[in-house]
Amino acid sequence: GQYATLSHCWGARQPLATTKATITARERGIADTQLPQTFRDAVHVCRVIGIRYLWIDSLCIIQDCDEDWASEAAAMSDIYHYSVLTIAAAGARDSTEGCFQPRNGLTLWPWFGTVFGRPSRVTRYSYNRRGTDGNLEDRENNCLNSSVWVLQEEVLSRRTLAFGCEEMTWKCQGMFASETLALGVPHAKITYDHRLRLQGSISTSQLGTEQPSKAHIFACWYQMIADYPARNLTFKKDKLAAIASLASRFATASKTKYCAGLWEEDIIKGLLWASDSGSTGVFPDQRLVEPLAPTWSWACGLSRAILGTSSESRSAVHCDASH
C-alpha cells in the first residue's frame, strides 16, 4: 500500500531505534506513548491525510546489524522515490522537538505582489529576508541542512511537506509552495536551486519532459557536491555511502560509469578540485591515515572541495578506477 517517509535530524539524542534486541518487540507494535514527539507528529500527519504506513529510518533499519544496513542503504533510492509523501521535520534539531514548532505569526506581514509574472500572496518578511538571493526557503533555519543523509532524501522524494521554524512548505516535481506563497511557483522558474535541478535530471521520465543533456546532469552533480562536505558527518565512512543512491540514479540518467564521486565521461573536469582547508581547519597536505575514497577523488578527505567551474565541453576519456 501507499506509504510516507520521514526526514528528520537525529541530533545529539539517539532517537527511538530498532536493534537486534528490540526487533521482536517492534514487530508486535509500538505504542504512541513510546514515540518521540517528531515521530508522533509525523504519524498524526499521516492519519489526517489518510496514509496508512510510515517509514522511519531509525525504526525500519536494524541499527546494530551491518547486513540490514547494507541492504536498506542499497534500497534507499527506491524507498524515498516511491514514497507518496516525505514529511520533513525541518525545524527540529532532534526527534524530541516535533514537527510543529512554536512560532510568532506576527513575523509574517501580509504583502501582495507578483512573483515570476504570476499574482501571489507573499509576505514582506519572506520577500525582504529571502527574496534578495532568490531562495524561497528559509535554509538558514532548516535543521536538516546539516545531515549528509538528508540530501538524497530531499532530491529523491517526489513530494515533500516540510514543517519549518517559521512556516510549512510544499515541494513536488512541478511546484514549490508555502504558507506565504500559497499559489506556488513552478519549478521551471526556479533555476537557482540545484536540488530542484537535480530532481529534474533524474525524474524526467515521470514528468514527460525532454531528457537533459549529460552536461546538464554533470553540472547538477558538481553543484551538489560543492556544498555536500559542509554537512555534518557522524561516521567518516558514510561520505560516499550517503549519496550512493543519488549516484545510482544519476548513472542511470547519464548512462555513464560512476567513479567514487566522479563520472567517467567527465573525468577531466571531475579531477579539477582542490581542498578548502578553511572549511575544516585541516590543511590540504594533511592526509587521513585511511582516505575516505581514492586520493584522486574530492571525497578522499574531510575538507570541503573547491571544484572546477568551467562550462567548456570536454571530450570523453576512458577511466579505469582503482584503489
Automatic annotation (TrEMBL):
<dbReference type="Pfam" id="PF06985">
    <property type="entry name" value="HET"/>
</dbReference>
<dbReference type="InterPro" id="IPR010730">
    <property type="entry name" value="HET"/>
</dbReference>
<protein>
    <submittedName>
        <fullName>HET-domain-containing protein</fullName>
    </submittedName>
</protein>
<feature type="domain" description="Heterokaryon incompatibility">
    <location>
        <begin position="3"/>
        <end position="153"/>
    </location>
</feature>
